[in-house]
Amino acid sequence: MNTSKVWYITGASQGLGLTLVKELLRKGDRVAATSRNAHVLRQAVELIDSDRFLPLSVDLSNPDCVEESVQQTLSAFGRIDVVVNNAGYGMLGTLEDATEQDIRNIFGINVLAAMRVVKQVLPVMRRQRSGYIINIGSVAGFAGAPGWSVYAATKAAIAAFSEVLASDVKEFGIHVTVVEPSGFRTGFLAQDSLAMIPVTGEDYNAVKDSRDRYLAANGKQPGDPDRAAAILIDLSEADDPPLHLFLGEDAYRRATEKLTVMSAALERWKTVAIKADFPL
């Protein structure tokens, strides 16, 4: 009997997704992986093994296409144990300069695509009475930086979605984790991966400084994709994985600093907050 796990991973042709796929195949698990181009994905993975690897061309903006990919995975492997919603991209610039379509596009991939995948997979995991959903968020969704407002909004949405989803599906033996990394050397800041919104205003010095700092850090980020992939695999083996996992020392620092500030602000404004209720 084959006891390896079956993984379904989106955005798998580069970055963390590709690193994770390669490591899972190396250790003997079975993987269905999505990309806009399955041929490119197959070449990147460099493995021809239809018994363990199923590369899929999937348009994540199309619900029918997502449903078909899940059915193909079930036909090939019989079950789905772990889902990793990794597909997504960054947007750097100001809200003023972002077009309506820019905003719709990034929410479509970073948020709605993940929801489409989960929607299709949940009936499978409920029948199994087991499963694990890993949504790749970002520390920016909790403690963002200037210039990343729209991107941060998508990742905050993923975090909130994951929190409530976890409570919805706990009774079925399904776990949920939102992984919130800081900077990793995954090509996230590369020209062909990042949506750069030109800053047209004369001001916005904080945004411009942040943009220059982040672009200069491309290829020098402290996060190691190999280590991140190993952590995700370890999470899949845990009996009680965390709901939130801030990944990387910078992510841990930023989250800790914000929690400290938030806790102080909550206490400072407590008397105002509770005045909003009807008197007892």
TrEMBL record:
Keyword Oxidoreductase: yes
Pfam families, sorted: adh_short (PF00106)
UniProt GO molecular function: oxidoreductase activity
Keywords: Oxidoreductase
Origin superkingdom: Bacteria
Family per similarity comment: Belongs to the short-chain dehydrogenases/reductases (SDR) family.
Name of the protein described by the UniProt record: Short-chain dehydrogenase
Organism: Chitinophaga arvensicola
